[in-house]
Protein backbone atom coordinates (compact mmCIF):
# COMPACT_ATOMS: atom_id res chain seq x y z
CA UNK A 1 0.00 0.00 0.00
CA UNK A 2 1.40 3.39 -0.92
CA UNK A 3 2.00 5.99 1.73
CA UNK A 4 -0.13 9.15 1.81
CA UNK A 5 1.68 12.23 0.54
CA UNK A 6 2.81 14.73 3.14
CA UNK A 7 0.43 17.65 3.55
CA UNK A 8 2.78 20.20 1.97
CA UNK A 9 3.27 17.97 -1.08
CA UNK A 10 -0.51 17.63 -1.55
CA UNK A 11 -0.89 21.40 -1.33
CA UNK A 12 1.89 21.94 -3.85
CA UNK A 13 0.30 19.56 -6.38
CA UNK A 14 -3.08 21.23 -5.92
CA UNK A 15 -1.51 24.66 -6.46
CA UNK A 16 0.24 23.53 -9.65
CA UNK A 17 -3.00 22.07 -10.99
CA UNK A 18 -4.79 25.35 -10.32
CA UNK A 19 -2.09 27.35 -12.09
CA UNK A 20 -2.23 25.01 -15.11
CA UNK A 21 -6.01 25.28 -15.29
CA UNK A 22 -5.86 29.07 -15.13
CA UNK A 23 -3.21 29.16 -17.85
CA UNK A 24 -5.35 27.05 -20.16
CA UNK A 25 -8.40 29.13 -19.41
CA UNK A 26 -6.46 32.26 -20.33
CA UNK A 27 -5.52 30.86 -23.74
CA UNK A 28 -8.72 29.16 -24.79
CA UNK A 29 -12.43 29.34 -24.32
CA UNK A 30 -14.24 26.75 -22.23
CA UNK A 31 -14.90 23.35 -23.76
CA UNK A 32 -18.55 24.17 -24.41
CA UNK A 33 -17.60 27.41 -26.15
CA UNK A 34 -14.99 25.58 -28.25
CA UNK A 35 -17.49 22.92 -29.31
CA UNK A 36 -20.06 25.57 -30.22
CA UNK A 37 -17.55 27.53 -32.29
CA UNK A 38 -16.29 24.51 -34.21
CA UNK A 39 -19.80 23.16 -34.88
CA UNK A 40 -21.47 26.34 -36.07
CA UNK A 41 -23.65 25.44 -39.06
CA UNK A 42 -23.38 27.19 -42.39
CA UNK A 43 -25.90 29.98 -42.75
CA UNK A 44 -29.04 29.33 -44.78
CA UNK A 45 -27.85 32.01 -47.19
CA UNK A 46 -24.53 30.22 -47.81
CA UNK A 47 -26.28 26.86 -48.17
CA UNK A 48 -28.64 28.40 -50.74
CA UNK A 49 -25.66 29.83 -52.65
CA UNK A 50 -23.98 26.41 -52.67
CA UNK A 51 -27.09 24.80 -54.09
CA UNK A 52 -27.54 27.60 -56.64
CA UNK A 53 -24.04 26.96 -57.99
CA UNK A 54 -24.58 23.23 -58.47
CA UNK A 55 -22.55 22.16 -55.44
CA UNK A 56 -23.35 20.30 -52.23
CA UNK A 57 -22.50 21.40 -48.69
CA UNK A 58 -20.07 18.48 -48.30
CA UNK A 59 -18.37 18.67 -51.69
CA UNK A 60 -14.59 19.30 -51.73
CA UNK A 61 -13.16 22.82 -51.43
CA UNK A 62 -10.02 24.64 -52.59
CA UNK A 63 -8.75 27.96 -51.21
CA UNK A 64 -6.89 30.75 -53.01
CA UNK A 65 -5.26 33.64 -51.13
CA UNK A 66 -4.04 36.88 -52.75
CA UNK A 67 -1.85 39.14 -50.60
CA UNK A 68 -1.89 42.32 -52.67
CA UNK A 69 -5.66 42.29 -53.14
CA UNK A 70 -6.15 41.06 -49.55
CA UNK A 71 -8.73 38.53 -50.69
CA UNK A 72 -9.38 34.86 -49.96
CA UNK A 73 -11.42 32.78 -52.38
CA UNK A 74 -13.21 29.53 -51.60
CA UNK A 75 -13.75 27.31 -54.63
CA UNK A 76 -16.00 24.28 -54.37
CA UNK A 77 -16.44 21.20 -56.52
CA UNK A 78 -19.62 21.08 -58.58
CA UNK A 79 -21.53 17.94 -59.35
CA UNK A 80 -19.70 17.63 -62.69
CA UNK A 81 -16.34 17.34 -60.89
CA UNK A 82 -15.08 20.83 -61.79
CA UNK A 83 -14.39 23.56 -59.25
CA UNK A 84 -16.18 26.90 -59.36
CA UNK A 85 -15.81 30.02 -57.24
CA UNK A 86 -18.18 29.98 -54.27
CA UNK A 87 -17.30 33.18 -52.37
CA UNK A 88 -14.58 35.82 -52.09
CA UNK A 89 -13.74 37.02 -48.58
CA UNK A 90 -11.85 40.28 -47.87
CA UNK A 91 -8.82 39.62 -45.65
CA UNK A 92 -8.79 41.78 -42.55
CA UNK A 93 -5.01 41.76 -42.03
CA UNK A 94 -1.88 40.08 -43.33
CA UNK A 95 1.72 40.82 -42.37
CA UNK A 96 5.08 41.12 -44.07
CA UNK A 97 5.45 41.92 -47.78
CA UNK A 98 4.99 40.24 -51.12
CA UNK A 99 7.25 37.22 -51.40
CA UNK A 100 7.72 33.89 -49.58
CA UNK A 101 8.31 33.36 -45.91
CA UNK A 102 12.03 32.69 -45.38
CA UNK A 103 12.79 32.45 -41.66
CA UNK A 104 11.34 32.63 -38.19
CA UNK A 105 10.78 36.23 -37.17
CA UNK A 106 10.48 37.79 -40.65
CA UNK A 107 6.70 38.30 -40.13
CA UNK A 108 6.11 37.06 -43.68
CA UNK A 109 2.84 35.32 -44.49
CA UNK A 110 3.69 32.21 -46.56
CA UNK A 111 3.30 31.84 -50.30
CA UNK A 112 3.09 28.49 -52.04
CA UNK A 113 0.92 25.38 -52.34
CA UNK A 114 -0.18 23.93 -49.01
CA UNK A 115 -2.26 20.90 -48.00
CA UNK A 116 -4.73 21.14 -45.11
CA UNK A 117 -5.74 17.91 -43.35
CA UNK A 118 -8.36 17.55 -40.59
CA UNK A 119 -5.55 17.51 -38.02
CA UNK A 120 -4.57 21.05 -39.03
CA UNK A 121 -7.99 22.43 -38.13
CA UNK A 122 -7.76 24.07 -34.70
CA UNK A 123 -10.99 24.44 -32.71
CA UNK A 124 -8.93 25.49 -29.65
CA UNK A 125 -7.34 28.51 -31.29
CA UNK A 126 -6.66 31.60 -29.21
CA UNK A 127 -7.75 33.45 -32.38
CA UNK A 128 -11.33 32.14 -32.26
CA UNK A 129 -10.87 29.36 -34.88
CA UNK A 130 -8.03 28.61 -37.28
CA UNK A 131 -6.36 26.16 -39.59
CA UNK A 132 -2.61 25.64 -39.93
CA UNK A 133 -1.18 26.12 -43.43
CA UNK A 134 1.48 23.47 -42.82
CA UNK A 135 4.49 25.72 -43.35
CA UNK A 136 7.21 24.70 -44.05
CA UNK A 137 6.18 22.26 -46.79
CA UNK A 138 8.62 20.15 -48.83
CA UNK A 139 9.45 23.10 -51.10
CA UNK A 140 10.12 25.42 -48.15
CA UNK A 141 12.26 22.83 -46.37
CA UNK A 142 14.41 22.33 -49.46
CA UNK A 143 15.52 25.98 -49.05
CA UNK A 144 16.04 25.67 -45.30
CA UNK A 145 13.13 27.97 -44.51
CA UNK A 146 11.93 28.12 -40.94
CA UNK A 147 8.73 29.07 -39.14
CA UNK A 148 5.79 27.49 -37.35
CA UNK A 149 2.13 28.04 -36.52
CA UNK A 150 1.40 29.93 -39.75
CA UNK A 151 -2.38 30.11 -39.84
CA UNK A 152 -5.56 31.41 -41.34
CA UNK A 153 -7.38 32.62 -38.23
CA UNK A 154 -9.73 35.22 -36.77
CA UNK A 155 -9.07 38.31 -34.62
CA UNK A 156 -7.84 40.55 -37.48
CA UNK A 157 -4.28 40.53 -36.09
CA UNK A 158 -1.34 39.02 -37.94
CA UNK A 159 2.28 38.15 -37.26
CA UNK A 160 2.98 36.00 -40.31
CA UNK A 161 -0.59 34.80 -40.80
CA UNK A 162 -3.72 35.61 -42.81
CA UNK A 163 -6.21 37.09 -40.35
CA UNK A 164 -9.94 37.29 -40.95
CA UNK A 165 -12.72 38.47 -38.69
CA UNK A 166 -14.12 35.91 -36.26
CA UNK A 167 -17.37 35.79 -38.22
CA UNK A 168 -15.52 35.05 -41.47
CA UNK A 169 -13.25 32.38 -40.04
CA UNK A 170 -16.27 30.64 -38.50
CA UNK A 171 -17.71 30.18 -42.00
CA UNK A 172 -14.37 29.13 -43.49
CA UNK A 173 -13.94 26.59 -40.70
CA UNK A 174 -17.46 25.25 -41.32
CA UNK A 175 -16.82 24.91 -45.06
CA UNK A 176 -13.66 22.90 -44.36
CA UNK A 177 -15.37 20.79 -41.71
CA UNK A 178 -18.27 19.95 -44.02
CA UNK A 179 -15.89 19.00 -46.86
CA UNK A 180 -13.98 16.65 -44.56
CA UNK A 181 -17.22 15.09 -43.34
CA UNK A 182 -18.14 14.58 -46.99
CA UNK A 183 -14.99 12.52 -47.56
CA UNK A 184 -12.34 15.03 -48.69
CA UNK A 185 -9.08 13.90 -47.10
CA UNK A 186 -7.31 17.28 -47.49
CA UNK A 187 -7.93 20.58 -49.22
CA UNK A 188 -5.42 22.68 -51.13
CA UNK A 189 -4.46 26.29 -50.35
CA UNK A 190 -2.82 28.31 -53.12
CA UNK A 191 -1.21 31.27 -51.31
CA UNK A 192 -0.20 33.84 -53.93
CA UNK A 193 1.35 37.32 -53.97
CA UNK A 194 -1.42 38.70 -56.21
CA UNK A 195 -3.76 37.70 -59.00
CA UNK A 196 -1.55 36.45 -61.82
CA UNK A 197 -2.51 39.13 -64.35
CA UNK A 198 -0.23 40.67 -66.92
CA UNK A 199 -0.47 44.04 -65.22
CA UNK A 200 0.46 42.72 -61.79
CA UNK A 201 3.48 40.74 -62.93
CA UNK A 202 4.64 43.57 -65.16
CA UNK A 203 4.48 45.97 -62.20
CA UNK A 204 6.63 43.64 -60.10
CA UNK A 205 8.94 42.51 -62.92
CA UNK A 206 12.14 43.40 -61.03
CA UNK A 207 11.12 41.81 -57.75
CA UNK A 208 13.68 39.15 -56.71
CA UNK A 209 10.79 36.75 -56.02
CA UNK A 210 9.75 36.70 -59.69
CA UNK A 211 11.29 33.28 -60.54
CA UNK A 212 9.40 31.81 -57.59
CA UNK A 213 6.16 33.48 -58.67
CA UNK A 214 6.57 32.14 -62.21
CA UNK A 215 6.81 28.66 -60.72
CA UNK A 216 3.62 29.26 -58.70
CA UNK A 217 1.89 30.45 -61.85
CA UNK A 218 2.48 27.07 -63.50
CA UNK A 219 0.18 25.60 -60.85
CA UNK A 220 -2.44 28.34 -61.01
CA UNK A 221 -2.48 28.04 -64.80
CA UNK A 222 -3.13 24.31 -64.49
CA UNK A 223 -6.11 25.03 -62.23
CA UNK A 224 -7.39 27.87 -64.41
CA UNK A 225 -7.49 25.80 -67.60
CA UNK A 226 -8.96 22.63 -66.05
CA UNK A 227 -10.93 23.82 -63.00
CA UNK A 228 -9.62 20.73 -61.23
CA UNK A 229 -7.26 20.66 -58.26
CA UNK A 230 -3.69 20.32 -59.55
CA UNK A 231 -1.60 17.51 -58.09
CA UNK A 232 1.49 19.06 -56.48
CA UNK A 233 4.97 17.58 -56.16
CA UNK A 234 8.39 19.08 -55.52
CA UNK A 235 11.68 18.10 -57.18
CA UNK A 236 14.89 19.93 -57.97
CA UNK A 237 13.71 22.56 -55.41
CA UNK A 238 10.74 23.62 -57.52
CA UNK A 239 7.06 22.79 -57.77
CA UNK A 240 5.82 20.46 -60.52
CA UNK A 241 2.12 19.99 -61.25
CA UNK A 242 -0.01 17.07 -62.46
CA UNK A 243 3.17 15.09 -63.03
CA UNK A 244 3.35 11.28 -63.09
CA UNK A 245 6.86 9.77 -62.90
CA UNK A 246 7.59 7.45 -65.82
CA UNK A 247 9.02 4.75 -63.57
CA UNK A 248 11.70 4.14 -61.02
CA UNK A 249 12.04 6.69 -58.25
CA UNK A 250 9.46 9.29 -57.39
CA UNK A 251 9.78 12.98 -56.53
CA UNK A 252 12.26 14.31 -54.00
CA UNK A 253 12.44 18.04 -53.28
CA UNK A 254 16.24 18.00 -53.07
CA UNK A 255 16.99 15.78 -56.06
CA UNK A 256 16.76 16.40 -59.82
CA UNK A 257 13.33 15.68 -61.23
CA UNK A 258 12.77 12.17 -62.56
CA UNK A 259 11.38 11.67 -66.04
CA UNK A 260 7.65 12.36 -65.84
CA UNK A 261 4.60 12.97 -67.99
CA UNK A 262 1.59 15.29 -67.77
CA UNK A 263 -1.78 14.52 -69.33
CA UNK A 264 -1.51 15.83 -72.93
CA UNK A 265 -4.75 17.82 -72.89
CA UNK A 266 -3.80 19.69 -69.68
CA UNK A 267 -0.20 20.21 -70.82
CA UNK A 268 -1.36 21.67 -74.15
CA UNK A 269 -3.91 23.96 -72.52
CA UNK A 270 -1.32 25.27 -70.05
CA UNK A 271 1.20 25.80 -72.87
CA UNK A 272 -1.34 27.74 -74.94
CA UNK A 273 -2.22 29.93 -72.00
CA UNK A 274 1.38 30.70 -71.16
CA UNK A 275 2.16 31.51 -74.82
CA UNK A 276 -0.72 33.98 -74.89
CA UNK A 277 0.35 35.45 -71.55
CA UNK A 278 3.86 36.16 -72.80
CA UNK A 279 2.48 37.93 -75.85
CA UNK A 280 0.28 40.13 -73.67
CA UNK A 281 3.20 41.03 -71.40
CA UNK A 282 5.37 42.00 -74.33
CA UNK A 283 2.57 44.34 -75.35
CA UNK A 284 2.18 46.17 -72.02
CA UNK A 285 5.47 45.92 -70.15
CA UNK A 286 6.94 49.09 -71.65
CA UNK A 287 3.97 51.20 -70.56
CA UNK A 288 3.43 49.60 -67.14
CA UNK A 289 4.96 51.54 -64.21
CA UNK A 290 6.92 49.70 -61.55
CA UNK A 291 5.15 49.05 -58.26
CA UNK A 292 6.18 51.54 -55.54
CA UNK A 293 8.50 50.35 -52.79
CA UNK A 294 6.81 49.09 -49.64
CA UNK A 295 9.95 49.18 -47.50
CA UNK A 296 8.95 49.48 -43.85
CA UNK A 297 5.27 48.68 -44.52
CA UNK A 298 4.16 45.60 -42.59
CA UNK A 299 1.49 43.85 -44.61
CA UNK A 300 -1.85 44.96 -45.91
CA UNK A 301 -5.57 45.17 -45.24
CA UNK A 302 -8.56 44.97 -47.54
CA UNK A 303 -9.96 48.45 -48.38
CA UNK A 304 -13.35 47.70 -46.82
CA UNK A 305 -11.72 47.02 -43.44
CA UNK A 306 -9.27 49.91 -43.77
CA UNK A 307 -12.09 52.37 -44.49
CA UNK A 308 -14.03 51.15 -41.47
CA UNK A 309 -10.96 51.41 -39.26
CA UNK A 310 -10.16 54.94 -40.43
CA UNK A 311 -13.74 56.02 -39.90
CA UNK A 312 -13.56 54.83 -36.29
CA UNK A 313 -10.00 56.09 -35.66
CA UNK A 314 -9.44 59.67 -36.92
CA UNK A 315 -5.73 59.53 -36.10
CA UNK A 316 -5.29 57.07 -38.99
CA UNK A 317 -7.12 59.15 -41.58
CA UNK A 318 -4.86 60.34 -44.39
CA UNK A 319 -6.29 62.44 -47.19
CA UNK A 320 -9.93 62.25 -48.27
CA UNK A 321 -12.17 60.20 -46.00
CA UNK A 322 -14.16 57.55 -47.84
CA UNK A 323 -17.50 56.56 -46.32
CA UNK A 324 -17.18 53.01 -45.09
CA UNK A 325 -19.53 50.22 -46.12
CA UNK A 326 -20.54 47.62 -43.53
CA UNK A 327 -17.59 45.35 -42.80
CA UNK A 328 -18.10 41.57 -42.94
CA UNK A 329 -17.44 40.99 -39.27
CA UNK A 330 -16.14 42.69 -36.16
CA UNK A 331 -12.83 44.58 -36.20
CA UNK A 332 -11.28 44.28 -32.70
CA UNK A 333 -10.10 47.44 -30.96
CA UNK A 334 -6.60 45.93 -30.80
CA UNK A 335 -6.31 45.96 -34.63
CA UNK A 336 -3.43 48.02 -36.02
CA UNK A 337 -3.50 48.55 -39.79
CA UNK A 338 -0.45 49.24 -41.98
CA UNK A 339 0.19 52.87 -42.97
CA UNK A 340 -1.13 52.53 -46.48
CA UNK A 341 -3.42 54.36 -48.85
CA UNK A 342 -7.10 53.60 -49.17
CA UNK A 343 -6.41 50.69 -51.53
CA UNK A 344 -5.17 48.80 -48.48
CA UNK A 345 -1.74 48.12 -49.99
CA UNK A 346 0.08 51.11 -51.54
CA UNK A 347 2.32 53.08 -49.13
CA UNK A 348 1.03 56.52 -48.16
CA UNK A 349 2.61 59.15 -50.40
CA UNK A 350 3.92 56.57 -52.88
CA UNK A 351 4.57 58.01 -56.33
CA UNK A 352 4.32 55.90 -59.45
CA UNK A 353 6.88 56.25 -62.24
CA UNK A 354 4.44 58.53 -64.05
CA UNK A 355 4.92 61.05 -61.23
CA UNK A 356 1.36 60.79 -59.91
CA UNK A 357 0.14 59.38 -56.64
CA UNK A 358 -0.71 55.70 -56.87
CA UNK A 359 -4.42 55.36 -57.53
CA UNK A 360 -6.87 54.06 -54.97
CA UNK A 361 -9.57 51.52 -55.67
CA UNK A 362 -11.46 52.03 -52.43
CA UNK A 363 -14.29 54.13 -53.81
CA UNK A 364 -15.20 51.49 -56.38
CA UNK A 365 -14.93 48.62 -53.91
CA UNK A 366 -17.04 50.40 -51.33
CA UNK A 367 -19.69 51.43 -53.82
CA UNK A 368 -20.13 47.74 -54.66
CA UNK A 369 -20.36 46.85 -50.98
CA UNK A 370 -22.87 49.62 -50.31
CA UNK A 371 -25.03 48.45 -53.19
CA UNK A 372 -25.11 44.92 -51.80
CA UNK A 373 -23.48 44.85 -48.33
CA UNK A 374 -24.27 41.19 -47.81
CA UNK A 375 -22.44 40.07 -50.93
CA UNK A 376 -18.73 39.17 -50.77
CA UNK A 377 -16.35 41.53 -52.53
CA UNK A 378 -16.21 40.66 -56.21
CA UNK A 379 -12.88 39.74 -57.70
CA UNK A 380 -11.42 42.00 -60.34
CA UNK A 381 -12.53 40.89 -63.83
CA UNK A 382 -10.16 38.28 -65.18
CA UNK A 383 -8.32 38.96 -68.39
CA UNK A 384 -9.16 36.71 -71.35
CA UNK A 385 -7.40 33.36 -71.50
CA UNK A 386 -3.81 33.95 -72.50
CA UNK A 387 -3.67 37.43 -70.99
CA UNK A 388 -3.05 36.78 -67.31
CA UNK A 389 0.68 36.95 -66.54
CA UNK A 390 4.00 38.58 -67.37
CA UNK A 391 7.43 37.61 -68.63
CA UNK A 392 10.43 37.16 -66.35
CA UNK A 393 12.99 39.94 -66.58
CA UNK A 394 16.69 39.17 -66.54
CA UNK A 395 17.23 41.43 -63.55
CA UNK A 396 14.65 39.49 -61.53
CA UNK A 397 16.35 36.21 -62.36
CA UNK A 398 19.72 37.63 -61.34
CA UNK A 399 18.35 38.75 -58.00
CA UNK A 400 16.64 35.44 -57.23
CA UNK A 401 19.65 34.14 -55.32
CA UNK A 402 18.68 36.34 -52.38
CA UNK A 403 15.71 34.04 -51.77
CA UNK A 404 17.58 30.75 -52.10
CA UNK A 405 19.49 28.55 -49.73
CA UNK A 406 19.47 28.06 -45.99
CA UNK A 407 18.69 30.86 -43.61
CA UNK A 408 19.72 31.35 -40.00
CA UNK A 409 17.18 30.69 -37.27
CA UNK A 410 16.38 33.63 -35.03
CA UNK A 411 16.11 32.99 -31.28
CA UNK A 412 12.52 32.53 -30.18
CA UNK A 413 10.98 35.63 -28.62
CA UNK A 414 7.45 34.33 -28.15
CA UNK A 415 4.80 32.89 -30.46
CA UNK A 416 3.41 36.18 -31.78
CA UNK A 417 6.82 37.68 -32.56
CA UNK A 418 8.51 34.77 -34.29
CA UNK A 419 6.15 33.40 -36.89
Give a structural overview.
It contains twelve helices and 14 strands. With 419 residues, the protein is of the alpha+beta class. Strands 3-2-1-10-5 form a five-stranded mixed β-sheet, with helices on both faces. Helix 7 crosses helix 8. Mean pLDDT is 80; it is low at 1-29 and 352-418. It has a domain at 44-289 and 401-407: L,D-transpeptidase catalytic domain-like (Beta Barrel), CATH 2.40.440.10.
Short account of what is shown:
The chain is an alpha+beta fold and 419 residues long. It has helices at 7-27, 31-38, 44-52, 138-142, 166-181, 198-203, 210-226, 264-284, 303-312, 362-371, 394-399, 415-418, and strands at residues 61-66, 71-77, 83-90, 93-94, 112-116, 121-122, 130-132, 151-153, 162-163, 187-192, 232-235, 238-241, 243-245, 260-262.
Task: Write down the secondary-structure element order.
Answer: HHHEEEEEEEHEEHEHHEEEEHHHHH
Largest sheet, in brief, is: 5 strands, mixed
The count of helical stretches stands at 12
Integer average pLDDT: 80
State the low-pLDDT regions, or none: 1-29, 352-418
Helix content: 25-40%
CATH topology of the domain at 44-289 and 401-407: L,D-transpeptidase catalytic domain-like
Distance between the termini: 50 Å
Which of globular, elongated, flat, extended, rod-shaped describes the shape?
A: globular
Amino acid sequence: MSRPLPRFARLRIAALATVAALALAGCNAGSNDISARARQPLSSKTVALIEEKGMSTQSPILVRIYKQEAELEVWKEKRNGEYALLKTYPICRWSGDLGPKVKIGDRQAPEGFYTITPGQMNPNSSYYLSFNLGFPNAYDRSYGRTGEFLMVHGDCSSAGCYAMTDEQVAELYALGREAFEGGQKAFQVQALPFRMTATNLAKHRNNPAMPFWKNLKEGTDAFDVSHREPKVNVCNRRYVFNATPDGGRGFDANLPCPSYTVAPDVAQAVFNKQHGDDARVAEIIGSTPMAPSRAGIDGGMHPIFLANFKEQNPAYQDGPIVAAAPAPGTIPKTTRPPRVQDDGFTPIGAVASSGTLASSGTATLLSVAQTNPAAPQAAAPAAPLGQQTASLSASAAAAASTLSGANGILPSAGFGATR
